[in-house]
Amino acid sequence: MKALSQRRRHPLAIFALMILGLLVTGSLYTLATSVNEARADTASFTASDVEQGQKLFVANCATCHGMNAGGTPAGPTLVGVGAAAVDFQVGTGRMPMQMQGPQAFLKPPQFNDEQTKQLAAYVASLGAGPAIPDPEYLDAQGNAAEGGELFRMNCAMCHNAAGAGGALTQGKFAPALDGVTPEHIYEAMVTGPQNMPVFSDANIPPEGKRDIITFLKTIEQGSPGGADLGSLGPVSEGLFVWVAGLSVIIAFTIWLTSRVS
């Protein structure tokens, strides 16, 4: 007992316990994340969808992503990105890219809905990943107030508090969210396209994502406070008031002095 007590008081005992605690916490987090991803990958496609999707992939995507989607120096691997990533990138026209650059630009889609589904089916067959979201989370009937709070905490630093977008580093940017479909908003959150982080169900649950979509669709209807001033937030509003007020004061001062003279 005395020897055991001495070992408990060893100077490295606390350090060892901290390391053990971090390892256990990390393992549990990894397990929870993988469970969420596995649960998300529930989209079902037919064998014909996968076959047709593979043909489309080889003809249009293999140059950058490789014949088996394993990646090349020109494009990343697509194994494990899931159907949601394909539906977002191809459905918004970002892929295939017109040219290499800091990030892919929004443009008219090259493939129709059926072809996009087939491409998503093929990529989904390569490995588990986020699936195309369930329609119940895309109805924009959630809690807009809760969604606004989640958006400001997690998204506004890049996309602006009103979803107007903003500049990032090295020629990259966070796009404006006005007019983006609920499906693509949800898919962007679960796949983290380009510079965007991934918001798994462990970070923001599906109900929270639904609330964010509701908030974005609510503010699309117009600014409840009057002129939105470009939706640049309190800085632009304060600057406008300051410049306008100062201009009125200067004009009034000039008018008074001219009358005196």
Question: Widest sheet: strand order?
Answer: 1-2
Q: Can you tell me the residue ranges where pLDDT is under 50 for at least 5 consecutive residues?
A: 33-43
**pLDDT averaged over residues:** 84
Helix content: 40-55%
Distance between the termini: 101 Å
Shape: extended
Beta-strand content estimate: under 5%
Q: How would you sum up this structure, described in words?
A:
The chain is an all-alpha fold and 261 residues long. It is 55% helix and 2% strand. It has helices spanning 2-8, 13-40, 47-60, 62-65, 82-91, 113-126, 144-154, 156-159, 182-191, 206-219, 234-260; strands at 166-167, 173-174. A two-stranded antiparallel ribbon has the order 1-2. β1 (166-167) and β2 (173-174) form a beta hairpin. α5 crosses α9. It is extended.
Question: What features would you highlight for this structure?
Answer:
261 residues; mainly alpha; two-stranded antiparallel ribbon; 11 helices; 2 strands; 55% helix; extended
Short description:
This protein is mainly alpha-helical. The protein is built from eleven helices and two strands.
Topology, pairings included?
Blueprint lengths: L1 H7 L4 H28 L6 H14 L1 H4 L16 H10 L21 H14 L17 H11 L1 H4 L6 E2 L5 E2 L7 H10 L14 H14 L14 H27 L1
Antiparallel strand pairs: 1-2
Helix pairs in contact: 3-6, 5-6, 5-9, 7-10, 9-10
